[in-house]
Amino acid sequence: MRRSVLSLLAATTALSLAFAAPTRAAEDAVVIPAPAMDATPANGIQTAVVAGGCFWGVQGVFQHTAGVVNAVSGYAGGSKATADYHTVSTGTTGHAESVEIKYDPKKISYGKILQIYFSVAHDPTQLNRQGPDSGTQYRSAIFTTSDEQKKVAEAYIAQLNSAKVYSKPIVTKVGALEAFYPAEAYHQDYLTLHPSQPYIAYNDIPKVENLKKLFADNYIEKPTLVSASKATN
Questions:
Q1: Which one of 48, 93, 167, 189 is at 20 to 30 Å from 42 when CA atoms are compared?
Q2: pLDDT tens-digit readout, 7-16
Q3: Pairing outcome for strands 173-176 and 140-144
Q4: Which residue in the list 51, 54, 71, 211 is annotated as catalytic?
C-alpha cells in the first residue's frame, strides 16, 4: 500500500484526492509496564536498532523522544546489495524496514526505548505486517548490538507475555545486528516533512500523540531530525 502512496506523490500534488485512507489506524497504543531488567548505564552514545512496520512512523516516534540524538530510517537483516527501497519492498531480501536509534544512556535507557517501541511505535503481535502494510519487510524485530541488549529484550518480551498486556502473543524476533543500511534521503524525516500526507496523518501522527500522552516525561516537541544532524556534522 505504501508503495502506491509514493507513486501518487510523485505523480500528482493532489494525493489527498487520489488516496483512500484505510478503515482504521495501523496500531493502537497499549499501556505496558517498564522492563524489570534494563541495560547497565554506560558512557558515550549507544545504538539501538528496531523494526516495527513502516519506518516513517517508528523514526518519527523516536525523533520526538528525549535522549535520542539521531534516529535514521534504513534496512537491517539482509545484504548491502539489496538494501534499497524498491528491492526491499519485494519482501524477498531478508531486510526489515528499521530505525537506527543513537541515544544518550544518561538521558534514556535501552529498556525505556524498548518500552516506547512496544507501547506506541508499533503492534508487536502482528506477524509480518503492521496495519495496512504486509510482508516480511514490515516484521517486528529487534536487532541487538550486544549480549546485554539481547538479554534485556528477551526478558522484556517474556515479561510482557507473562503479564498478558496484549490480547495475542508477541511475535517480535530478537537477533544480532549484522549491519544497518540507511534508507534513501527521501525517506528521512518523512513524518515531519509530510504531516498532512494521508498515510502519515492516519497511521503515524497518532503514534507521536500517544508518545506525548503516555510518555510525557520522555517527549520533546521539537523533533531531532536527520537533516539537522547532518548540518551540524
A1: 189
A2: 444 333 333 3
A3: parallel
A4: 54
